[in-house]
Structures are given as C-alpha cells and as structure tokens.
Amino acid sequence: MQLVRLIVIAVVLIVMCVIASRAKLVPGRAQSIVEMLIEFVHGTIIQNTLGIREGRRFAPFLITLFFLILAMNLAGVVPGMNLAGTSVIGFPLLLALWTFVTYVVAGIKKHGLGGYLKHETMPPGVPKPIYILLIPIEFLQVILIRWASLTIRLLANMVAGHIMLVVFIGLTQGLLLSGTWLIVASPFAGALAIGIYGFEIFVAALQAFIFTMLAAVYIQMASSDEH
Amino acid sequence: MLNAEAEVPGYKLLLPETSEIIWTLIFVVIFAVVFMKFVLPRLTAVLDERSEKIEGGLKKAEEVQQQADDLKATQEQELAAARQEAAGIREKARQDGARIVEEAKARAEAESDRVLASGRQQLSAERQTASTQLHSEVGSLASDLASKIVGESLTDDERSRRVIDRFLDDLESSQSATR
C-alpha cells in the first residue's frame, strides 16, 4: 500500500517538477494538459464557488488536493499497481481532516471563534424554537459529518471500484479456466471487466472533482458573509 | 489479492492503523510542500505571464489600430484639403483664362478699330490728292473737250457754251457729292 503511494507521489512529483521547470509561455503538450487541469479546477471549482478574490487565497490548496486525489485514484487503474492510494482509509481521512482544518481556520479568521460557530450553526431566518434542534445538528455537521462524509465517500468509491475490478477479473479468469461449458460465458465477464475498468477511470476523476468541489464549498460556507 | 484476506472484520476498513496514518501524513506533506512551493507558483506564474502577454498584445494591437485610424483620418483630411486646393486653383485658372481671352479680344478689337480708322484716313487722304489731281486735269480735259466741241460745231455758239457750262457744273456737283 505505502509502496504504491510512494511510487505515485514520486512519479507525479517528478513529472510535475519537470513540466514546471520547463514551463514556457508557449506550452508543449504535457504543459498544456497540466495547465488545462489547473484551469479546470480554477474555472469550474474555485471561481464558481469561492469567487475570484477568495479563490486566489485557497487556490493552491484546492489544486493540490485535486491533483493528489486524482493521481492516487488513477493508481487504481494503472496496471501493475491496481490499487488506488485513496482506497485505504488513511489517505482520504487525512485529506478530509486537512480540508476540515482549512475551512474552520478560514471561518474563524473571518468571523472569530464565537462568530464562526454562530455563523455556521445558526442560520438566520429560522423560528427560534427550531434552533434547539438545529444547533446540535449544524454543529455536528460542521465538526464531524462534513469531513467524515468526505472521507467515506472517497474511500467507499475507491474500495468499491477496486472490489468490482477484482470480482470481474477474477470471474473472467475463473470461468475461463473452469474447463466446463461455462467458458462460453467468460468473454461477457471479460467485457464487463473492461467496461468497469473504463468506468473506474471516470470515477477516479469524478471523485477527485467532487472532493475538491465540496472542499471549496465548505470553505465558501465558512467564510461567506451570509448563508 | 484474493488470498490476502485472513478473516479481517469489515469495520477495520474504517479504522486507520497508526503506521498508515504516519506514512500518509509523510506523503501528503511531501506532495503538498513540493506542489505548493514549487510546481504551482511556477505554473501560475507562467499562466499569469501568458495572460498578461495576451492582454498586452491585445492592447498594443488596439493602440496600433488607433494609430492607423488616426493616420488614415489625417491623410483623408489632407487629401480633401489638397483636392479643395486643386479645385480652387483650377477655378482661378479658368477665371484667369477667361480674363486673358477677354483682354485679348478687347485688344484685338481696339487694334482692328485703329487699323480700320487709319485705313479710312489714308483712303480719304488719297481721295483728296486724287481729287486735287483731278481738278488740275479736269481743266485740260475740259479745254480738250471744249476745243473738240468748238472745232466740230462752231456754228452753234450758244449751244456749245451751254454744253460746256453744264459739263462743268456737273463735274463740280459730282465732286462735291463724292467728297
């Protein structure tokens, strides 16, 4: 597990450092792709949620988050590794906690400790008695549910993807080597495995996007003026 | 990978081991530091520089366009002025020409008048001399005629004298008439 992560990190960092150190005004292909990803995170995630001014402050964090998760997720579909760095809980958990700390710090910086808690747990325009119910829920949400859901969403997706791949590839192999008439069914299982493989690539990108998007939204909620 | 499970209970999936946390932390920190301190500033610098360049280029293009427009406007103005000037000059030339023709005509008329007048004067002078000459000749002619008439019909004295008188009278009157 740690070996996979080490390889992913080493490869990604070396590639990115090479691209970055060779970065030119007129980009080559590799640089274009990386820039496209950065622009994607910038345009789609950051500017849509945080806006340009706030976004500038959190852009490094969010882009790093996106690249890290994307790389780790994609490790799950790289032949030879086939294990997403995010499919063991340590990684998603740590990233989620990092996000948690980031948005809490952003909120406290903006509103002060008490102000931040009030801002997050007491949305305006709600009848007074509801607060009895609302405050604990919101508090729990801020303090636990947000980062926990981030963790579990990413982890479960990656684990499920991994299990599906294992199941279908294993099924194909089992059918193929069964030695009975079941061999006939093995191409279908194989096709499904390949389909799932493609799907996993999509999920890897999608989960990276969702995680980053939610992180941006949480930061926005913490540092916004109104709900 | 299938054989790796030695009856691990499911909830373990959600409970990280200490080593796992430590390694992950190390990886994340390494990645984050390198990414945030080196890769991203570099790339964003390039991106910013590019957008700046593009903006600068656009601005410059605009400026150049503006300059070209200005140049064109002044050129057109100058052209219009030149055209106007040319038209003025042409107009003036036409007027001058007309004036010159007029003058020449007047001069020619005067000249012709003068010539005519001098001709007429000369003519009258010549006529004068001719008439004086004639006067002197008329006497001899008349005496010739008279001698002829006398010689031919001397018998009729009365008549010949009348003829000579009348002749002379006629001569006189015709001379005064032509004068």
Automatic annotation (TrEMBL), chain B:
Pfam families found in the cross-reference section: ATP-synt_B (PF00430)
Keywords: ATP synthesis, Cell membrane, CF(0), Coiled coil, Hydrogen ion transport, Ion transport, Membrane, Transmembrane, Transmembrane helix, Transport
Major place of residence: membrane
Membrane topology, as annotated: Single-pass membrane protein
Transmembrane segment boundaries: 21-40
Protein name, entry field: ATP synthase subunit b
Stretches assigned to coiled coil: 54-92
Top-level taxon of origin: Bacteria
The protein's role, per its UniProt record: F(1)F(0) ATP synthase produces ATP from ADP in the presence of a proton or sodium gradient. F-type ATPases consist of two structural domains, F(1) containing the extramembraneous catalytic core and F(0) containing the membrane proton channel, linked together by a central stalk and a peripheral stalk. During catalysis, ATP synthesis in the catalytic domain of F(1) is coupled via a rotary mechanism of the central stalk subunits to proton translocation. Component of the F(0) channel, it forms part of the peripheral stalk, linking F(1) to F(0).
Residue span of region Disordered: 117-136
Species the sequence originates in: Brachybacterium tyrofermentans
